[in-house]
Specification:
The protein is of the alpha/beta class. The protein has a single domain, classed as 3-Layer(aba) Sandwich (Aminopeptidase), CATH 3.40.630. It is about 50% helix and about 20% strand. Helix 1 packs parallel to helix 3, helix 2 crosses helix 7 and helix 4 packs across helix 7. The protein is globular and about 45 Å long.
Length: about 220
Amino acid sequence: MNTLNQITFSLFCLVFLNLTYSQNSKDKVRNPIVVIDPGHGGKDAGASTRNGIKEKDIALGIASKIVVLNNKLVENPLMLFLTRYTDTLISLGDRTQLSKKLKANMFISIHCNQAINRTASGTEVFIYPKSEEQAEESAYLGFTIQKGLAYILGIKNRGIKYGDFQVLRDNDSSAAILLELGFLSQTDEAIYLSKEESQNAVALVILQSIIKFLGL
């Protein structure tokens, strides 16, 4: 599915759901809109493990599992959209444009890290402060997710940092973060993030953290 079709399909879903909600109850507040951005895709593989498992596949796997869990496990409290649903390269501009068109409350770009130092490990969250309120919301969202990953799954927390990334810089969401889930250059984290059950666990913690952040 090309970029235009993806955006059109997502917007169609949003309009359909909004119409359904308005028919059922005009006074009912819409579910929060969350855009999950699986980093890289297509010819842009991102980082990779020693065994050749690619960052783009891990990011998409976890993002897709968040959608499944939201739909089946916690009765769909969020309106979730992905910037890509397949192994496709989507431009950074199109990723942020989707978020703007949907008027998303939240934007989370999922990535994995890599370093020359093979002992480097843990999660990192990057934010691009556009206002004091947006910076606070983004930082708290990142803090909530990192706290969950550290407390529940034991993944090291490397903190929240400033990052001049286009998907953050051009984003209008109330909270926008770029989440580095671990280092594929570190053997233990590479093995962990490559496993299906681990991706399910990470996806569940991220979803629970989003719900907690929104107070749902």
